Amino acid sequence: DIAVELLQNVAPSPIRRLQKKYVSHVSREACISPCSMMLALVYIERLRHRNPEYLQQISSSDLFLISMMVASKYLYDEGEEEEVFNDEWGAAGKVDVQTMNTLEMNFLSAIDWSLYTDPRELFEVLSWLEG
Fold this sequence. Notes:
Blueprint lengths: L1 H9 L9 H11 L3 H17 L1 H6 L2 H17 L9 H8 L3 H14 L8 H12 L1
Helix pairs in contact: 1-5, 2-6, 3-5, 3-8, 5-7, 6-7
Organism: Circaetus pectoralis (black-chested snake-eagle)
Protein name: Protein CNPPD1
InterPro entries: Cyclin-like_sf, Cyclin_PHO80-like
């Protein structure tokens, strides 16, 4: 509920507006971990401060999907046994792999490839969520 509300507020486009049913579906299909969710929220907060223009151009559904995928890749993709494939994320989010690739490149460019997160940033988001 909190993630849906946050994403609808930061990416206000009425096109592909994020719905709880979609979040539940993608979360189950992609096995989104709590850590990935937290890291994705850090990325979104980072974008809100550094690149708000990007957030005006992307739908909240696409932002949810791509931020979760990038966070998951950052945390778990070791390149061999635990690879994260864009086509699998696309299937979970009901978009084609070409769209996933474009979303990923645009997201990484918007965040200036700044994926490393100091643990303090995670704790700030956690404190905000708990509040």
